[in-house]
């Protein structure tokens, strides 16, 4: 199960935003659709996901209809908060969205389209386990309007996949990529590095294999040991060794060099793409602090400075909606200080960085020291922006600390 939900204020049963929260017609709006089902729980996973034995009264075959009830509620809430905005991005995440029939995913997308509208050039992404991708699935998704598939490769090395409890057939990654590309979809590949027992040579093999599939986009994330996961318990017992920070840094540099040599440029600390047009616009919307509504159990949302999160379990989520109530478990309205902190946290992660002028006055002198330490690009700083160097990407938390503690 995922970690516990954050603390916050009670959320109203009708889901309405506070009167002070007014939608800005010029702020982009995105949609996240959470599908919380997995065949097997990976040992490192802290996401809000459930295997069939953990559903306790929730039904996978009714999930699309339940989520569409929240879409209907959101339509009314947003209509009350200001002008209508079509979605510029839609992202099916999980869990494993492709465990649902492609027809269910298409109905969910149609529901979003009917409730809010979807821009003609919208980016619409579906995450997929390689074992669940077939020609029929990708063709149905493409017809429904999906434009992009994110394939969960994680590693090309059997013992690393085993350490992560990943059960997919590694040969199916290439098949999934080719099927998606054949249906006209853009393709992203997800990788994880720093698993127990993974060597630098193992990681090199995974990077080279991922590049051999010629994806438009690659996400590569350092393994983080989250409290409450199977992996956390294994490390606490001494069964496996915790990830090594220095080795993970070496792995990051290896990947960055290989991706650049293959024509992919970094645009966010953990993401690379073949061009500006192939970047994940949905994730960029998070990093730029725009508005989105997250549908599904445990999903988080942010609209007009108000952030909220849904109840975690699919059964509780369905019960709330069946009774006519919002599934929100809690919420908070961000004050100016919180917004300023989040801007630093998020904008410094992307290639464009953030304007120095947006930093608190007391924090601006720290930029010179960060340049001297090789963490911030000096030329960009002269131009009035805080942009991370590669060393800065590896120490992004230290940069944020320096820029928010002034």
Automatic annotation (TrEMBL):
Residues 23-265 form the Radical SAM core domain. The keyword Chaperone applies. SUPFAM superfamilies: Radical SAM enzymes. GO terms for biological process: porphyrin-containing compound biosynthetic process. One of its GO terms (cellular component) is cytoplasm. It is found in: Cytoplasm. InterPro entries: Aldolase_TIM (IPR013785), Coproporphyrinogen-III_oxidase (IPR034505), Elp3/MiaA/NifB-like_rSAM (IPR006638), HemW-like (IPR004559), rSAM (IPR007197), rSAM_sf (IPR058240). NCBIfam families: hemN_rel. This is Heme chaperone HemW. It comes from Microbacterium faecale.
